[in-house]
Amino acid sequence: MSHIQIAVDGPAGAGKSTIAKLIAKELNYIYVDTGAMYRAVTYFAMQHNFISETHLHTKELIKNLSDITLQFRFNETLGFAEMYLNNENIEQAIRTIEVSRLVSKIAEISEVRAKLVEQQQQMGQNKGIVMDGRDIGTVVFPDADLKLFMTASPQTKAQRRFEELIEKGQKVTFEEVLQNVQERDYIDTHREDSPLVKADEAIEIDNSNLTKKEQFELVMELVKDIL
Ligand code: CDP
Questions:
Q1: Burial code of 72-101, b = ≥16 C-beta within 10 A, e = fewer?
Q2: How confident is residue 67, by pLDDT bands cut at 50, 70 and 90?
Q3: Which of ligand 1's atoms lies nearest the C-alpha of 140?
Q4: Given Cys at both, which of 39, 53, 136, 150 links 7, Cβ 3.0 to 4.6 Å?
Q5: Rounded to whole angstroms, how far apart are CA atoms 42 and 100?
Q6: 94: Cβ below 6 Å to ligand 1?
């Protein structure tokens, strides 16, 4: 069976990672969460005081980008790959609302994008990959065999993200999460470099009213057509 590249894009909380993980598991492909990489750079920038709610030292961050080494390491127990920054497991640390509030500002910086896109393209060289993000079908893999664009109503997106954060034991309000999702979507769709936009050939799936199983079956049909 030939191996293909599957690109999954869409706004925050649209269920990209849920479907991408299921498909990757079914096909025995690699799954890559590119959002984790932007979150990791944000975490690095926060640690070095290059960014906070009140300032952003873009030049300093750019100067220090070569000090960032990102790796995904598969955790057998959890069944998914965790994000490592310079050999430190930061999987939990990058999922906080504090990182979510700053990540879209970091993702606007072209030098950051260039570094991460290069690494993402290397990971997809041998195909057999499902990658989710904002610019996968447009910039990272413009020739991907299958491009999906996931959407859901704003309420659904915020509700999903809120439940995930509560499950992880974080203290957040629904309003806070809704505001964050809306702010990020605004910045992500309006930035100059690689904005979030549906690729021409991408298949749009609004999953507001689909169960995980329905979504999975729908996408697997598309995959089978290609294979
Ligand atoms: O999981 P969620 O959809 O909330 O976000 P994420 O995938 O973890 O991505 C976090 C942020 O990283 C996004 O809001 C974008 O600002 C940025 N991002 C990006 O610019 N390009 C990507 N390919 C992936 C994420």
A1: beeeeeeebbbbbbeeeebbebbbbeebbb
A2: very high
A3: 23
A4: 136
A5: 9
A6: no
